[in-house]
């Protein structure tokens, strides 16, 4: 049975629905919704730049994500493990030059950023 191009177009996802290969930077990734965003996006094929203040939590998150790929490719001896997630320390309360340096590190991790999820929160009084 032949499939028409019209039928293929109907079943093809919109470009914004296909996240495979996208580089996503998530602020506030060390816990809560930010953590869950990172896991879900990695499972959808994204590479993750996880940012927050707590580097120990970010490293645990990135280890979890990077192990997802290793588990999927277990038994494939010739393929070196891919880096799917990197941790970058970023405090959104820091001064501009510190934030700029963190963003530069994030950019250099994969060469570009396709998507930014600004999830980081600020507690206390803003002056």
How is the secondary structure organized here?
Elements: H1 5-11, E1 23-27, H2 32-43, E2 47-52, H3 55-72, E3 85-89, H4 96-110, E4 115-117
Parallel strand pairs: 1-2, 1-4, 2-3
Strand order of the largest sheet: 3-2-1-4
Q: How many beta-strand elements?
A: 4
For the termini, the CA-CA separation is 67 Å
Q: Round the mean pLDDT to the nearest integer and report it.
A: 86
The low-pLDDT segments are none
Label the overall shape: globular
Give a verbal description of the structure.
The chain is α/β, with parallel strands linked by helices and 127 residues long. Helices cover 41% and strands 15% of the residues. It contains 4 helices and 4 strands; from the N terminus they run αβαβαβαβ. It has a 4-stranded parallel sheet with strand order 3-2-1-4, with helices on both faces. Strand 1, helix 2 and strand 2 (47-52) form a beta-alpha-beta unit. The longest helix has 18 residues, at 55-72. It starts with a helix and ends in a 10-residue tail after the last strand. The model has no long low-confidence stretch (mean pLDDT 86).
